[in-house]
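Thought: the user wants the 3D structure for the chain below. I'll pass the sequence to the structure tool as-is, report back what it returns, then summarize two notable features.
Action: structure_tool
Action Input:
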Amino acid sequence: MRTLCASTLIGEFFVIGFAGLVAMKSDDLSMGTVWTVCGIGMLLSVLLCGMITRPGGVQLGWGLQVLLVASGFVVPAMFVLGLIFGALWWASVHYGRRIDEAKARWAAQAQAQAAAD
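Observation:
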């Protein structure tokens, strides 16, 4: 699960950075505000890569997905990108857990086979 989720979060890191570049074009926002908000989002996405397997890591990832969709109020394209990354996050968590369970079963079978030999 960790690899799939971390890959999604690194992709979000770049999308948040590019959204910041688009948001800079807005006359309503100062450059400092844009890069403070984007910097926090980018930092959070990188930090979450190491927190995925810890308690609350997946829930914090869901929070980041909500914030990514909400950023669509500033950069409208982020509504679509946020939903896409939300779907990727769901798939990463869902299929990542299934892969982890399969790996655990294979390891148990290999250990049982080694003990039987």
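Final Answer: Structure generated. The helical segments are 2-23, 31-51, 57-70, 77-116. The chain is about 85% helix and 0% strand.
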